């Protein structure tokens, strides 16, 4: 019979598990699932879900319009549209610059710098009046992406030489 | 409406992802798997409640975590040393009725803890324990003297 409170300090090894092949054999469905699962972080690493911006430009007579806008955002991510006007002519040009309201319909807290001169059901009027020769003006619209999916809009410029519509769209990931 | 959609998407994603990982994760928890379960709830709960507005962010985070766990399990399956490094090794607490004090002290387990586990296994005295082994999932396996013979 052993002692009641016997203790030892040497650690014997418990019975070892039998040897087995350690070659991996995943089922096809599992393999496909893992590949799909790995796709998300892989796409994220390559910046697929990151915010992206693009800059387009158009001209109406001597006035050029350049618009920088987000092409994709994630839900509730801050976005910014930057529109700038430049009169490359030698004479002052009358301009009106509008931003379609449809684009910002689902956006949260849009902020205009400077503030819109006029708001109609269809558009925000960003600028009107005369643009001096060589003058450049910028307009910032900050907002928070408020709805999933594609949001299309346009900036409309008229400088007396015929209206120009510069369209853009933003894809918002959930 | 948005909350319902978020819960549906996250639920379906987690069910599918856990199904992909296999049954192993439900049976026993290695340190990596325990971390996975603890972090998963932290990652998805803000997306469920809307505190972290981007569902894509949460799904990417959970997918990354699950892939890390899957890679860890590949490593531990394919390489015994890696298995010991990531998952730990079983520790003998009692052998043939004798307490292994050094191991008990290292694992911060008292003789009372071992005896308690022995009683749960139907053994009233340590003398009747051939092996008491602290498994890598934290459970203490009790093997009675009678079952193994010698």
SSE topology sketch:
The complex is a heterodimer of chains A (174) and B (150).
Chain A: E1 7-8, H1 28-45, E2 52-60, E3 63-74, E4 78-87, E5 93-100, E6 108-113, E7 118-119, E8 123-131, E9 136-144, E10 149-158, E11 163-173
Chain B: H1 2-21, H2 24-27, H3 31-49, H4 55-78, H5 80-87, E1 91-95, E2 98-100, H6 101-107, H7 111-120, E3 129-134, E4 140-144, H8 145-148
Antiparallel strand pairs in B: 1-2, 1-3, 3-4
Helix pairs in contact in B: 1-3, 1-4, 3-4, 4-5
Instruction: Provide the gyration radius of chain A in Å.
Output: 30 Å
Q: Record the strand order, biggest sheet of chain B.
A: 2-1-3-4
Helix count of chain B?
8
Biggest beta sheet summary of chain B: 4 strands, antiparallel
Structural category of chain B: alpha+beta
Please give the share of residues in helix of chain A.
Answer: 10-25%
- Compute the number of strand runs of chain B: 4
What order do the SSEs of chain B take from the amino end to the carboxyl end, as H and E?
HHHHHEEHHEEH
What value does the Rg of chain B take, in angstroms?
A: 21 Å
Beta-strand percentage of chain B? 5-15%
């Amino acid at each position: 019979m052993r002692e009641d409170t016997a203790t030892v300090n040497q650690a014997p090894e418990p019975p070892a598990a039998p040897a087995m092949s350690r070659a991996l054999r995943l089922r096809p469905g599992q393999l496909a699932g893992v590949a799909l699962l790995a796709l998300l972080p892989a796409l994220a690493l390559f910046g697929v879900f990151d915010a992206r911006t693009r800059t387009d430009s158009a001209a109406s007579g001597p006035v050029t319009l350049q618009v920088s806008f987000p092409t994709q955002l994630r839900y509730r991510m801050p976005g910014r549209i930057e529109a700038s006007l430049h009169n490359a002519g030698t004479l002052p040009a009358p301009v009106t610059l509008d931003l379609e309201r449809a684009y910002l319909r689902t956006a949260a807290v849009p902020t205009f710098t400077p503030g819109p001169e006029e708001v109609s059901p269809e558009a925000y009027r960003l600028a009107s009046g005369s643009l001096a020769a060589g003058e450049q003006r910028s307009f910032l619209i900050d907002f928070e992406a408020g709805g999933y999916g594609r949001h299309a809009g346009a900036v409309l410029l008229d400088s007396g030489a015929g209206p120009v519509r510069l369209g853009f769209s933003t894809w918002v990931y959930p | 409406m948005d909350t319902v959609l978020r819960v549906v998407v996250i639920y379906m994603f987690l069910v599918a992802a856990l199904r992909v990982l296999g049954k192993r994760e439900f049976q026993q928890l290695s340190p990596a798997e325990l971390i996975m379960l603890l972090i998963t709830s932290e990652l998805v709960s803000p997306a469920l409640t809307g505190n972290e507005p981007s569902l894509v962010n949460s799904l990417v985070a959970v997918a990354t975590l699950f892939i890390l766990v899957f890679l860890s399990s590949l490593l531990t399956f394919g390489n015994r040393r890696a298995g010991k490094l990531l998952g730990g090794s079983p520790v003998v607490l009692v052998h043939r009725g004798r307490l292994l004090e050094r191991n008990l002290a290292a694992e911060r387990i008292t003789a009372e803890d071992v005896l308690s586990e022995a009683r749960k296994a139907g053994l009233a005295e340590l003398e009747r324990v051939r092996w008491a082994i602290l498994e890598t999932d934290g459970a203490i396996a009790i093997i009675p003297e009678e079952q193994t013979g010698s």
